[in-house]
From TrEMBL:
TM annotation in the entry: 58-80, 92-117, 147-168, 180-196, 202-222, 234-257
Superkingdom field: Bacteria
Keywords: Membrane, Transmembrane, Transmembrane helix
Full protein name: Uncharacterized protein
Keyword Membrane appears in the UniProt entry: yes
Length: 261
């Protein structure tokens, strides 16, 4: 399985992992807010450990899969107030280390089995027939403005939209405008959080970047609404619903494209 497919699969499974970690009743838990049990929360931290299966691009895999794990932890923190159990720092560190150890041992077993049971001649033939790998980018090239823009072009446009939305919200508040154009833009942005990365070159990182940008700007706009109306934060439920629908649609589209095209 390619790295991008693994990231999409892990991203798709994060809500399930959050449910298992925070909401599933464990037979070993006594207190409603007790620390997480191994069988409940270990799945939330398995994504970074999978990077050991991509040693040829380990740091890239660690960045992608670690970002997916971070997104799952953020989702867990958002819903933690309504959960049956809590997420602790010790749990996070322990399960993260255990993930690397567990998958590292599996990787060693696979390598050892391949070494002892694989025909060297056939392996050399396979290597000779395999296409030549493209030279990897240097660190300076990866962080150049041109390269970043080519990879994250949809995210740059999305950031510009969110900045315009925030400025418009501030203008509406300052001049007491009744036209809620900023609210329409926020709902549109909630859809574009998941849709826009489909047109970029870095889908996973673009999706995560869009999520954090939307979360920060949307939270700021909601706080501005609460200044005049304490119940203004209720609209966050609608924004969250649209956001989840957009993310789900985006992940399904990307998964279908990677599998069939």
């Amino acid at each position: 399985m390619t790295l991008i497919n693994t990231c999409i699969l892990m991203l798709f499974l994060q809500p399930l992992f959050v449910y298992l970690a925070l909401f599933k009743q464990s037979k070993y838990s006594v207190k409603p807010k007790s620390s997480l049990d191994n069988e409940d929360s270990m799945f939330l931290f398995i994504a970074p450990g999978l990077s050991v299966f991509y040693l040829d691009q380990f740091w890239v895999a660690l960045l992608y899969l670690g970002s997916v794990c971070l997104l799952g932890v953020l989702l867990a923190k958002i819903v933690e107030s309504k959960a049956n159990k809590r997420l602790t720092r010790d749990d996070s560190i322990g399960f993260m280390v255990a993930s690397f150890i567990f998958f590292g041992m599996i990787k060693l077993i696979i390598v050892a089995a391949a070494y002892f049971f694989t025909d060297d001649a056939s392996s050399s033939i396979t290597e000779d027939l395999s296409p030549a790998k493209e030279p990897s980018l240097t660190i300076s090239q990866m962080f150049s403005v041109d390269y970043l823009y080519s990879q994250f072009k949809p995210t740059v446009y999305f950031l510009a939209l969110m900045v315009v939305t925030l400025v418009l919200k501030i203008i509406e508040y300052k001049f007491s405008l009744k036209e809620a154009l900023s609210g329409i833009l926020i709902m549109l942005s909630a859809i574009l959080v998941g849709i826009s990365p489909l047109f970029g070159e870095a889908y996973i990182l673009g999706l995560i970047a869009n999520f954090f940008i939307f979360f920060i700007v949307c939270s700021t706009c909601i706080e501005i609404d609460k200044i005049e109306d304490a119940s203004g934060g209720a609209i966050a439920i609608l924004y969250g619903y649209i956001l989840m629908m957009g993310l789900g649609f985006s992940i399904i589209c990307k998964l279908v494209y990677e599998v069939f095209f």
